[in-house]
Amino acid sequence: MMNMLYHNGFGKIVINNQKYTKDLILFSDYIKTKWWRKEGHSLCLDDLSIFEERKPEILIVGTGSAGVMTVPEDVIQALNEQEIQVVVTKTPEAVQEYNKLVKEGKNVAGAFHLTC
Question: How many Cβ atoms from other residues are within 10 Å of residue 30's Cβ?
Answer without folding.
Answer: 11
